[in-house]
Records
---
Amino acid sequence: ARAFSLNTDASHRFERGVDFNLPLKAMARATQLVLELCGGTAGPVIDATEKAHLPKRGAITLRRDRLTRMLGTALPKQKVDGVFAQAGYAFTPSTSGWKVKPPTHRFDLVAEHDLVEEVARLSGYDTFPANRPRVLAGERLAPEADVEVRDVRLFESGHVFWGTVRKPLESLSIGGVVTGSATGTRWDQKGRDVDFFDIKGDVESLIDLAGASGRTQFAATVHPSYQAGQCAEIFVDGASKGFVGRVSREMLQVVDIDRPVFAFELDWESVSRRRVPQHLPVSRFPQVSRDLSFEFDEAIDAARVMDCIRQGAGDLLQNAEVIDSYKENDAKSTRKSMTFRLTLQSEYRNLTDGEVDAVAKHVVDAVGSELAGTLRGR
């Protein structure tokens, strides 16, 4: 049937096996009906079976110990005998259990565990007691301090509910926590613990999957779940989408954790819908980098400066990144400095020093007028 792709009622029936004693049973039943309805006398049965071609159905051994171990309870011998007799199985008791010969219509009974299932099914699953596993505690238990996995990175996605009873609100979010080593065990360098910028980079990578790079901002904020001074609100296309920062000490005390833990929570829509990528040819003209160091009031964050740089640099700007941030260790000082690296490139020509200087001047002027930032060294 499979070789010739013949899906018929006969193939559907015979590929699942047919009782080879069925013809004799069918003939006996038909003869009985004819005699009851029409009378007459039945002649002898002529059997022309080729027994060499019939399936070999040998006896299956069922051990009493195996039956008890798999059922979790010991059944009386009379109970098991009654199960086999009720099912019409030919069986012979032995010193260690039973030898059972399955009927010709039960093609699924081929091994010892099949007979265990039959005994359980015909006895009734609800008749077996519930035996809970026994766990013995040792005298010496390893202290948690010697076990405590220290490097942990977990994430979860799920529904978040807020609002009021009359007006409930619901959204799908993704969150993550991280603590422990940032680099793992390294022979060539000294390890360090994770910090705010590690998990901030994880969030940026996650948002980048949705093609939202360049449209994401992190603004310093205050949140009861995070430690003051190490918390930022996440904005994508100007809309608030979540928070990232160091978990507050109060929350860590509740769960008895004495190590720094960093976490983030982000709206699922920000990372689940990806824009269709657009192909841009690679420019064959070289890139030019220019570093600019500014001094600002300490209230100015890097995100605002980056927006100002992008607006002032124009179309030649390919990338802008913060490469250094410094604040003097002086409680009276209210100024800080940040260094930005601007990468410029044209798709049509080589850039001249004059063009690069002009872009840098536009950036310096924009930063000075909008953020009161001054170029260091002036």
---
Amino acid sequence: MELCTIIIPCYNEQEMIPIFYEEMTSVINIMQNLDFQFLFIDDGSQDKTLIKIKELKKKDIRVHYISFSRNFGKEAALLAGLERAIGDYIVTIDADLQDPPSLLPQMYQEIKEGYDCVAAYRKNRKGEPLLRSVFSKLFYKIINKISKTNIVDNARDYRFMTRKMVDAVISVHEYNRFSKGIFSWVGFQTKWISFENIKRVEGKTKWSFWKLFLYSIEGIVAFSTVPLALVSFLGILFCFLSLLGMIFIFIRAVIWGDSVAGWPSMICVITMLGGIQLLCLGIIGYYLSKTYSEVKHRPLYVEKESG
């Protein structure tokens, strides 16, 4: 039979590993048309995540794992799993059970009907902090406005993919990876299915508001150069405004004579312009730093052990 590799990135998920395994096996055991294997990616966990995975491996030969030497991030974990997966089909799913395994039979059915990828997204963000929900919606609106790559709102990293699509994703050799964008950029026919937001069963989320904010910046920089165009536009705009200002000052001096009034407002204008210049330099510097990361060609992760 055809083989399906299930990739599960894990970081400090000692409570969730046994629960996830039981939930997932109850689903895959009824899918008689496929063989399955688990590929857990331990992203440098500081708790007993790796121990729990090894315990599963002792009782189930379908369980495999890769353990990193330190925490390299979820993007590195996803890439490691995709590179090592040997299945005809590949599933990526989080260990927190916020992505319901019960969708797998439906996803497989859609794949057999001709799709290259079946991906899941949340209908809503019920139960999440309001601030996080607002900024999430804002991020998707911004990135879809300024990028040629469409990214579905509330898209998850829960996907059922064919081998040819996974090979295409792996062929994208980027150091600064934003998988949601890469999955969309490579193309292929994708079927989207929705589900209600689900809270974690155990443990705490590893994604703080600040980490999500930085991750959103990564996505914008990885799939759009509009911020650089905006910097150029601001430069031209303020050059034009300064020219108008010089003309105004010259005409005022000719008609009413020179005056030393207005120093406070002048200081405010100088401060504002200085802030805009620093902002523009920061945007350019961020793109430059990403280029610097790319040309160093460091590995995205370092494997400590596997099994």
